[in-house]
Structures are given as C-alpha cells and as structure tokens.
Amino acid sequence: MLTRKTSEVSAIRSPVLSELSPDLRIKTERMLEELRGFGEVIVAFSGGIDSTVVAYLARFALGEHAIVVTADSPSLPSSELAEANRLAKLIGMKHLIIRTEELEDPNYVSNPTNRCYFCKKELSEKLHRLASDLGISVIVEGTNADDLKGHRPGAAALVERGVRRPLADVGMTKAEVRELAKLCGLPNFDKPSMPCLSSRVQYGQIITPERLARVERSENLIRSLTGVKELRVRDHGDLARIEVGTNERELFFDEELLDRIGNSLRQFGFTYVAFDLLGYRSGSMNELLISDTKSKQ
User: 161-187 burial by CB neighbour count: b if 16+ within 10 A, else e?
Assistant: First the structure.
C-alpha cells in the first residue's frame, strides 16, 4: 500500500496496488516513481477524470510539494471551475486559479481547425509564468495514452513548452484511468469528458463570449429538464445541434419537452434547433474535416 506524506484525506483512500490488474499496477508504480523524481510539480487541473488522477497520484507521491492549478476563462463552464475546486479540497491539495486570455488572441478567436493549439499555448505560458514565480520547474497534465490518437493540435503546444504528461508516458489508457480512479474512491471516476465550450462551435465560426455563454446556458437548461449526463449543444451559427448519449436519446421522446427545449434555445439566440439522431460522438465537429479531406481526394 502507498504511504502518504500528509494527513488522511476524507473519502479518498490510498490505492492498494495488489488490487490492480498486473499491467495497471506496473503503470501506476512507474508513474509514482516518475512523479517522485520530479521533486515538486504543478498539476494543470481541469477537474476532469484524467487530471484528477494525476493530481491524486502527485498528492501521494509528493505531498504538499504538489499543487493544482485551474485556468479560468469564458470557455470554461462555471460549473467545472466549482467542481475543480471541490475535488482539490477533497484530495487535500493547494488549489490556485489563473486567468487565461485566449479570447484576446485573434488566432484562437477565428476558430481554425488548430484552435486548441492557441488555447494550450496560452495556458502553458501562464503556467510557466506561475511556476517560475513559485520556483517549481515541472508542470504535468492529464493527457492519457488514448489522447495521443486523432486530431489533437493542443498537445503540440504543451509539448513545445515542456509540459509533462505522465499518464501517456506510462501508456495508461482512459479505461485504466477510470479503473484506478474507481478503486481509489475518486467521485468523478465515471464522469463524462467535458472539453471547453469552444469545442462546441463549428470551425470557422468566430468565438465570442456571447456565443460561449449561449452554449453553456443551453446545456444547463437541457440538463435541468432531462437529467442527461452525456450532452453537447453544437453551435453551427444559426443552428443548434443537440447530441446526447445514445442510451439517453429516449429521454427526449416527449413532444412537450422538445417544444420547451426548442423554444428556449431560440430565445437564447439560435434560429433553428435540431436533435442529432445518431447521438453523442466525441469530436463530432471533426467529421467535417474528414468529409472535406475525402472530397478533395
């Protein structure tokens, strides 16, 4: 069993490595060894399951020599910032909040297909500035092995600035991250992924605070009416396209509910409101990139 360098943390228990599958146990041990070797770290902490596991292991490996830092910006749902703060307290870590200003960058605001690069560049620069002020040389974040696949332009910006990704370094997959989180009692072990609000906006549509706010307002309304867990309101300009988990689509099979959602989203600024029959797909905005590539072949 791992030992702690600080007092017990409520509701969170030390991972019993013998309870893990052999492969996951080896990966966890390697990651703890890597974290201890850093001496002290800043964890880029979104409150999602990946960064929570990184923070949790850093806490056990380094005690008070690990702190978590969350970026606050219009592209982050306010509920996610509150959740990050709650989780940091639960794990027992010092939590700092920095303000990022990606909406001041015209490269980001124009919403190109590599938009995430400019966001992560802004984040990494702010994290490095904070790390320098605190005298900490290592920054880590929650990219897992599965995240290295597909369209991930933001990863390049983090690598350029030397931000470390211990989950990916040891080859830990998303499923393994969730398995480890569940064993250790982390309350968000089954939390759906929650990327920034800008990821809902179709490439080429200008990113504005108002556009992000209406997406967040739309999703909050739909969740309050249905209790749906997996949800995206995709912004295609005048059109809002609602995606929900495939096993949750039946929650919307009610004419009165559909009318209420449709009318509300029109009040928020959309002209048309559509329900995606195929349900939620991670990165569905990238389907436009794939379609465009095929048409040029």
Answer: eebbbbbbebbbbeebbbbbbebbbbe
Q: Just give the CATH number of 197-296.
A: 3.30.300
> In CATH, which superfamily holds the domain spanning 17-183?
HUPs (3.40.50.620)
Comparing 17-183 with 197-296, is the CATH topology the same?
no
pTM of the predicted structure, to 2 decimals: 0.87
pLDDT digits (tens, 9 = 90+) for 18-54: 788 899 999 999 999 999 999 999 999 999 999 999 9
Three-state DSSP state, 258: helix
Question: What is the arithmetic mean of pLDDT over 178-195?
Answer: 91
DSSP of 96-138: EEEE--GGG-HHHHT--TTHHHHHHHHHHHHHHHHHHHHT---
Q: What is the dihedral of CA 277, 146, 153, 123, to 10 degrees?
A: 110
pLDDT tens per residue across span 124-164: 999 999 999 999 999 999 999 999 887 788 888 898 999 99
Name the residue ranges covered by the structural domains of the chain: 17-183, 197-296
Please, which pLDDT band fits residue 84 given cuts at 50, 70 and 90? very high
- The answer, yes or no, to whether residue 2 has pLDDT greater than 50, is no
Closest CA to 9 of 69, 55, 46, 51: 55
Q: What phi and psi values does residue 242 have, to the nearest 5 degrees? A: -95, 125
